Amino acid sequence: MQAHTFHIKWGMVIDIDKCTGCGACMVACQAENNVAPVTEASNKLRTLSWMLVYQLSNKQDFPNHDVAYLPRPCMQCGHPSCSTVCPVVATTKDEEGGIVSQVYPRCIGCRYCMAACPYHARYFNWHDPVWPEGLDKVLTPFTSVRPRGVVEKCTFCHHRWMAAKEKARHEGHDPSHLAEDAYIPACVDICPTGAMHFGDLLNPEHEVHKLSKSPYAFRLLEKLGTDPQVYYYSKREWVRRQGDNYLKHEKTKGE
Ligand code: SF4
Ligand code: SF4
What we know:
It contains 7 helices and 8 strands.
Protein backbone atom coordinates (compact mmCIF):
# COMPACT_ATOMS: atom_id res chain seq x y z
CA MET A 1 0.00 0.00 0.00
CA GLN A 2 1.32 3.44 -0.90
CA ALA A 3 1.01 5.65 2.18
CA HIS A 4 2.15 8.91 0.63
CA THR A 5 1.23 11.18 -2.22
CA PHE A 6 4.35 12.28 -4.05
CA HIS A 7 4.99 15.48 -5.97
CA ILE A 8 8.02 13.94 -7.67
CA LYS A 9 8.11 10.37 -8.96
CA TRP A 10 11.56 9.40 -10.21
CA GLY A 11 11.15 7.01 -13.05
CA MET A 12 12.87 5.28 -15.90
CA VAL A 13 11.77 4.50 -19.43
CA ILE A 14 13.95 1.88 -21.09
CA ASP A 15 13.77 1.68 -24.88
CA ILE A 16 14.11 -2.03 -25.55
CA ASP A 17 14.49 -1.39 -29.27
CA LYS A 18 17.69 0.57 -28.60
CA CYS A 19 19.21 -1.79 -26.01
CA THR A 20 21.97 -3.96 -27.49
CA GLY A 21 22.44 -6.03 -24.32
CA CYS A 22 26.04 -4.79 -23.94
CA GLY A 23 25.79 -4.96 -20.12
CA ALA A 24 27.46 -1.57 -19.51
CA CYS A 25 24.58 -0.64 -17.18
CA MET A 26 25.26 -3.73 -15.06
CA VAL A 27 28.96 -2.89 -14.74
CA ALA A 28 28.33 0.80 -14.01
CA CYS A 29 25.81 -0.13 -11.34
CA GLN A 30 28.19 -2.59 -9.68
CA ALA A 31 31.03 -0.04 -9.58
CA GLU A 32 28.83 2.87 -8.48
CA ASN A 33 27.17 0.98 -5.64
CA ASN A 34 30.07 -1.12 -4.33
CA VAL A 35 28.35 -4.37 -5.27
CA ALA A 36 30.89 -7.07 -4.43
CA PRO A 37 31.73 -9.78 -6.97
CA VAL A 38 30.64 -13.19 -5.72
CA THR A 39 33.12 -16.04 -5.90
CA GLU A 40 30.50 -18.65 -6.76
CA ALA A 41 29.21 -16.53 -9.66
CA SER A 42 27.83 -19.54 -11.51
CA ASN A 43 25.24 -19.93 -8.75
CA LYS A 44 22.62 -17.47 -9.97
CA LEU A 45 20.73 -17.68 -6.68
CA ARG A 46 23.72 -16.23 -4.84
CA THR A 47 24.96 -13.52 -7.18
CA LEU A 48 24.27 -9.83 -6.59
CA SER A 49 23.02 -7.88 -9.63
CA TRP A 50 21.04 -4.77 -8.77
CA MET A 51 20.74 -4.25 -12.51
CA LEU A 52 20.34 -7.41 -14.57
CA VAL A 53 19.96 -7.63 -18.35
CA TYR A 54 17.69 -10.44 -19.51
CA GLN A 55 17.54 -11.79 -23.04
CA LEU A 56 14.09 -12.24 -24.57
CA SER A 57 13.27 -14.22 -27.68
CA ASN A 58 10.19 -14.35 -29.89
CA LYS A 59 10.75 -18.13 -30.02
CA GLN A 60 10.39 -18.19 -33.83
CA ASP A 61 12.70 -20.11 -36.13
CA PHE A 62 15.00 -18.45 -38.68
CA PRO A 63 14.37 -16.21 -40.62
CA ASN A 64 11.69 -14.84 -38.26
CA HIS A 65 13.83 -15.23 -35.14
CA ASP A 66 14.18 -12.05 -33.09
CA VAL A 67 15.74 -11.23 -29.72
CA ALA A 68 15.53 -8.30 -27.34
CA TYR A 69 17.37 -7.28 -24.18
CA LEU A 70 15.60 -6.15 -21.06
CA PRO A 71 17.57 -4.37 -18.31
CA ARG A 72 15.88 -4.86 -14.94
CA PRO A 73 16.56 -2.52 -12.02
CA CYS A 74 14.28 -2.33 -8.95
CA MET A 75 10.94 -1.06 -10.26
CA GLN A 76 10.49 1.28 -7.24
CA CYS A 77 6.90 0.03 -7.23
CA GLY A 78 4.06 2.39 -6.31
CA HIS A 79 2.57 -0.49 -4.34
CA PRO A 80 5.69 -2.40 -3.31
CA SER A 81 5.00 -5.93 -2.16
CA CYS A 82 8.47 -6.05 -0.60
CA SER A 83 7.96 -3.28 1.94
CA THR A 84 4.55 -4.45 3.08
CA VAL A 85 5.95 -7.79 4.26
CA CYS A 86 9.06 -6.47 6.01
CA PRO A 87 8.58 -7.13 9.75
CA VAL A 88 11.09 -4.50 10.87
CA VAL A 89 10.35 -1.58 8.50
CA ALA A 90 13.78 -1.93 6.90
CA THR A 91 12.36 -1.11 3.48
CA THR A 92 9.81 1.65 2.95
CA LYS A 93 8.28 3.87 0.30
CA ASP A 94 7.80 7.10 2.14
CA GLU A 95 10.36 9.56 0.76
CA GLU A 96 9.45 12.20 -1.84
CA GLY A 97 10.48 10.82 -5.23
CA GLY A 98 9.04 7.38 -4.57
CA ILE A 99 12.33 5.48 -4.32
CA VAL A 100 11.85 2.35 -2.18
CA SER A 101 14.45 2.53 0.59
CA GLN A 102 16.59 -0.22 2.07
CA VAL A 103 17.94 0.41 5.57
CA TYR A 104 20.78 -2.07 5.98
CA PRO A 105 21.37 -1.74 9.77
CA ARG A 106 17.69 -2.50 10.35
CA CYS A 107 17.43 -5.54 8.05
CA ILE A 108 17.35 -8.84 9.93
CA GLY A 109 17.86 -10.92 6.79
CA CYS A 110 14.57 -12.82 6.96
CA ARG A 111 14.27 -12.49 3.13
CA TYR A 112 10.48 -12.09 3.17
CA CYS A 113 10.93 -9.15 0.80
CA MET A 114 12.82 -11.33 -1.67
CA ALA A 115 10.00 -13.83 -1.72
CA ALA A 116 7.44 -11.04 -2.16
CA CYS A 117 9.17 -9.17 -5.01
CA PRO A 118 7.76 -10.40 -8.32
CA TYR A 119 10.71 -8.94 -10.23
CA HIS A 120 13.54 -10.80 -8.43
CA ALA A 121 15.09 -7.41 -7.81
CA ARG A 122 16.38 -8.15 -4.30
CA TYR A 123 19.56 -9.92 -3.26
CA PHE A 124 20.76 -11.48 -0.05
CA ASN A 125 24.37 -11.26 1.09
CA TRP A 126 25.28 -14.87 1.76
CA HIS A 127 28.91 -13.90 2.32
CA ASP A 128 30.90 -10.98 3.64
CA PRO A 129 31.84 -8.82 0.65
CA VAL A 130 35.34 -9.52 -0.71
CA TRP A 131 36.97 -7.64 -3.58
CA PRO A 132 39.88 -8.98 -5.64
CA GLU A 133 43.22 -7.43 -4.56
CA GLY A 134 43.45 -3.85 -5.73
CA LEU A 135 39.78 -3.43 -6.50
CA ASP A 136 39.08 -2.56 -2.87
CA LYS A 137 41.01 0.66 -3.51
CA VAL A 138 38.41 1.91 -5.96
CA LEU A 139 35.38 1.54 -3.70
CA THR A 140 33.17 4.62 -3.85
CA PRO A 141 32.72 6.57 -0.60
CA PHE A 142 29.11 7.38 -1.49
CA THR A 143 27.55 3.96 -0.89
CA SER A 144 28.02 1.86 2.23
CA VAL A 145 29.34 -1.69 1.89
CA ARG A 146 26.76 -4.25 2.98
CA PRO A 147 27.66 -7.04 5.41
CA ARG A 148 26.70 -10.69 5.25
CA GLY A 149 23.11 -11.33 6.32
CA VAL A 150 21.26 -8.35 4.84
CA VAL A 151 19.24 -7.82 1.68
CA GLU A 152 20.16 -5.18 -0.88
CA LYS A 153 18.68 -3.79 -4.08
CA CYS A 154 18.83 -0.96 -6.63
CA THR A 155 18.15 2.49 -5.17
CA PHE A 156 18.10 4.51 -8.42
CA CYS A 157 21.55 5.68 -7.16
CA HIS A 158 19.86 7.57 -4.32
CA HIS A 159 23.20 9.15 -3.32
CA ARG A 160 23.31 10.89 -6.72
CA TRP A 161 19.99 12.50 -5.92
CA MET A 162 21.33 13.72 -2.57
CA ALA A 163 24.41 15.12 -4.35
CA ALA A 164 22.25 16.87 -6.97
CA LYS A 165 20.14 18.48 -4.24
CA GLU A 166 23.27 19.60 -2.39
CA LYS A 167 24.70 21.12 -5.58
CA ALA A 168 21.43 22.94 -6.23
CA ARG A 169 21.49 24.39 -2.71
CA HIS A 170 25.08 25.62 -3.14
CA GLU A 171 24.16 27.26 -6.43
CA GLY A 172 21.13 28.94 -4.89
CA HIS A 173 18.56 26.84 -6.74
CA ASP A 174 15.52 25.09 -5.31
CA PRO A 175 16.62 21.47 -4.58
CA SER A 176 13.03 20.27 -4.94
CA HIS A 177 12.93 21.48 -8.57
CA LEU A 178 16.00 19.94 -10.17
CA ALA A 179 16.74 20.34 -13.87
CA GLU A 180 15.97 17.24 -15.92
CA ASP A 181 19.58 16.06 -16.21
CA ALA A 182 20.72 17.13 -12.72
CA TYR A 183 20.11 13.67 -11.24
CA ILE A 184 20.73 10.56 -13.33
CA PRO A 185 21.54 7.04 -12.06
CA ALA A 186 24.85 5.48 -13.16
CA CYS A 187 23.20 2.96 -15.50
CA VAL A 188 21.41 5.70 -17.44
CA ASP A 189 24.60 7.78 -17.50
CA ILE A 190 26.69 5.00 -19.05
CA CYS A 191 24.26 3.54 -21.59
CA PRO A 192 26.09 3.94 -24.94
CA THR A 193 22.95 3.73 -27.07
CA GLY A 194 20.81 6.18 -25.10
CA ALA A 195 18.27 3.43 -24.42
CA MET A 196 17.59 4.57 -20.86
CA HIS A 197 15.73 7.74 -19.94
CA PHE A 198 15.38 9.06 -16.41
CA GLY A 199 13.42 11.88 -14.82
CA ASP A 200 10.25 12.87 -13.00
CA LEU A 201 7.27 10.90 -14.30
CA LEU A 202 4.95 13.60 -12.94
CA ASN A 203 6.70 16.49 -14.70
CA PRO A 204 5.14 17.06 -18.16
CA GLU A 205 8.39 18.67 -19.33
CA HIS A 206 10.45 15.57 -18.67
CA GLU A 207 11.06 13.06 -21.46
CA VAL A 208 10.06 10.12 -19.24
CA HIS A 209 6.63 11.67 -18.68
CA LYS A 210 6.03 11.84 -22.42
CA LEU A 211 7.50 8.41 -23.19
CA SER A 212 5.52 6.71 -20.43
CA LYS A 213 2.29 7.90 -22.06
CA SER A 214 3.17 6.35 -25.44
CA PRO A 215 1.06 3.41 -26.66
CA TYR A 216 4.38 1.57 -27.05
CA ALA A 217 5.19 1.98 -23.35
CA PHE A 218 4.54 -0.91 -20.99
CA ARG A 219 5.44 -2.09 -17.52
CA LEU A 220 6.47 -5.52 -16.35
CA LEU A 221 3.67 -7.60 -14.84
CA GLU A 222 1.51 -4.48 -14.68
CA LYS A 223 -1.56 -6.61 -14.07
CA LEU A 224 -0.28 -7.51 -10.60
CA GLY A 225 -1.03 -3.93 -9.52
CA THR A 226 2.50 -3.14 -8.33
CA ASP A 227 2.46 0.20 -10.22
CA PRO A 228 6.18 0.22 -11.17
CA GLN A 229 8.07 3.50 -11.68
CA VAL A 230 10.07 1.77 -14.42
CA TYR A 231 8.55 1.70 -17.90
CA TYR A 232 9.72 -0.07 -21.01
CA TYR A 233 9.19 0.98 -24.60
CA SER A 234 9.11 -1.15 -27.73
CA LYS A 235 7.45 -0.92 -31.10
CA ARG A 236 7.69 -4.72 -31.33
CA GLU A 237 4.41 -6.22 -30.27
CA TRP A 238 5.90 -9.56 -29.16
CA VAL A 239 8.14 -7.70 -26.70
CA ARG A 240 5.20 -5.84 -25.15
CA ARG A 241 3.26 -9.09 -24.91
CA GLN A 242 6.00 -10.81 -22.95
CA GLY A 243 6.27 -7.83 -20.59
CA ASP A 244 2.85 -8.43 -19.09
CA ASN A 245 2.15 -12.05 -19.97
CA TYR A 246 -0.65 -11.18 -22.40
CA LEU A 247 -2.90 -14.03 -23.40
CA LYS A 248 -3.22 -14.74 -27.14
CA HIS A 249 -6.64 -13.11 -27.47
CA GLU A 250 -5.70 -9.97 -25.49
CA LYS A 251 -4.56 -6.79 -27.26
CA THR A 252 -1.63 -4.69 -26.01
CA LYS A 253 -1.93 -0.89 -25.76
CA GLY A 254 0.15 -0.41 -28.95
CA GLU A 255 -1.99 -2.68 -31.16
S1 SF4 B 1 15.18 -9.36 4.70
FE1 SF4 B 1 15.45 -7.36 5.71
S2 SF4 B 1 14.38 -5.88 4.38
FE2 SF4 B 1 13.73 -7.93 3.75
S3 SF4 B 1 11.81 -8.29 4.91
FE3 SF4 B 1 13.49 -9.17 6.12
S4 SF4 B 1 14.15 -7.54 7.50
FE4 SF4 B 1 12.88 -6.57 5.92
S1 SF4 C 1 10.72 -4.29 -7.79
FE1 SF4 C 1 10.63 -5.66 -6.04
S2 SF4 C 1 12.14 -4.77 -4.62
FE2 SF4 C 1 11.65 -3.17 -6.09
S3 SF4 C 1 9.95 -2.02 -5.12
FE3 SF4 C 1 9.02 -3.56 -6.48
S4 SF4 C 1 8.59 -5.29 -5.10
FE4 SF4 C 1 10.09 -3.97 -4.05
